[in-house]
Design goal:
single chain, about 325 residues, alpha/beta, Rossmann fold, Methionyl-tRNA Fmet Formyltransferase, Chain A, domain 2, 7-stranded mixed beta sheet, 6-stranded antiparallel beta sheet, about 25% strand, elongated
């Protein structure tokens, strides 16, 4: 047996690069990286490589595989020819059994939640949207049903109140990278024993983010709307609509509503900031409390503060009846 395992790494975005770097730094450099094909992006349709491919080239990894179809016999034969001991999967596509069964010691995935909770495509976003105070990362062996394989290792982390999805992404990328190295070494040394995922009632799901589940419902409580915004910032962002145009909400904060002012859910106006008499703040009514709009981005415009948005309304400031953001649920 060689002193180091023959590792095939499978991943695509920056989140995967954290684990790839950690393997390299731990003298566990993969012999191959499997990632998505290059694709044209942007207005100029310039062909772009995935973050994982770019880093693999920098590290001098000899084999970079970019199959269009993971069930392609030619790709499977190429993978078999590499004779891998372990496959490490981080932020990649769903693998067919014909692929994940090739490595001699197994294939494991890094998932950005404490499984079995938050199975699905967007765990980082949904733990914030649901107002969780703790989350973590899990490595588990792949099996046919997605995100249900036996657990190898887990690590937890407390979520800071001021974190958005970008902050949590970076924290879990670092935590997960260390766990990938630990899991790889454990599989290679035979010191890990996989355990079935526990049966837990009332599990949360982490479905794919869509325009429908990222739109603000102003009939919810202010704190829930804040969690939605922080859970989707900086990407893909929560959004609302006004005058037929989309407005992305990047940062908000809940405020207690003033007794002498009534705002219906979705109705917005500029008021003196209750926490600072020297400044003003753009607030929106909700089912309970108000939401202060700190940073937003109207469609076709730059990112701006709530005050800049209000100032840009000009004469429309006087047309109070138009100060209503679109609500997906009628009031």
């Amino acid at each position: 047996m060689s002193q180091t395992p023959r590792i095939v790494f499978m991943g695509t975005p920056g989140f995967a690069v954290g684990s790839l770097n950690a393997l390299a730094e731990a003298s566990l450099l993969p012999i191959a990286v499997v990632t998505v094909p290059d694709k044209p992006v942007g207005r100029g349709l310039k062909v772009a490589e995935s973050a994982a491919k770019q880093r693999a080239k920098e590290l001098g990894i000899p084999h970079i595989l970019q199959p269009e179809n993971l069930k392609d016999p030619a790709f499977i034969q190429e993978l078999q020819a590499l004779n891998p001991d372990i496959a490490v999967v981080v932020a990649f596509r769903i693998l067919p059994q014909a692929v994940y069964s090739i490595p001699r010691l197994g294939s494991f995935n890094l998932h950005a939640s404490l499984l079995p909770d938050y199975r699905g495509a967007a765990p980082i976003n949904w733990v914030l949207i649901n107002g969780e105070e703790q989350t973590g990362v899990t490595t588990f062996l792949l099996q046919p049903t997605v995100d249900t394989g036996d657990i190898l290792l887990q690590r937890s982390i407390n979520i800071r109140p001021d974190w958005n999805a970008g902050h949590l992404h970076d924290a879990l990328m670092e935590l997960g990278a260390g766990l990938v190295v630990e899991t790889t070494r454990g599989l290679w040394q035979g010191t890990l024993q996989a355990q079935p995922q526990p049966t837990i009632q009332n599990l949360h799901s982490a479905p794919k983010l869509t325009p429908e589940n990222t739109m603000v419902d102003w009939n919810q409580q202010a704190v829930k709307i804040q969690n939605l915004v922080r859970g989707l910032s900086p990407h893909p962002t929560a959004w609302t609509e006004w005058e037929g145009k989309k407005i992305k909400l990047l940062a908000v904060k809940p405020l207690p509503s003033l007794e002498d002012t009534t705002l219906y859910p979705g109705q917005f106006k500029m008021i003196s900031d209750p926490s600072s008499s020297k400044s003003k703040v753009l607030v929106v009514g909700t089912a309970e409390g108000w939401i202060a709009l700190e940073h937003l981005k109207p469609e076709g415009q730059r990112e701006m503060t709530g005050l800049e948005f209000w100032n840009g309304l000009g004469k429309l400031q006087l047309e109070v009846e138009r100060h209503i953001f679109h609500n997906p649920i009628s009031i």
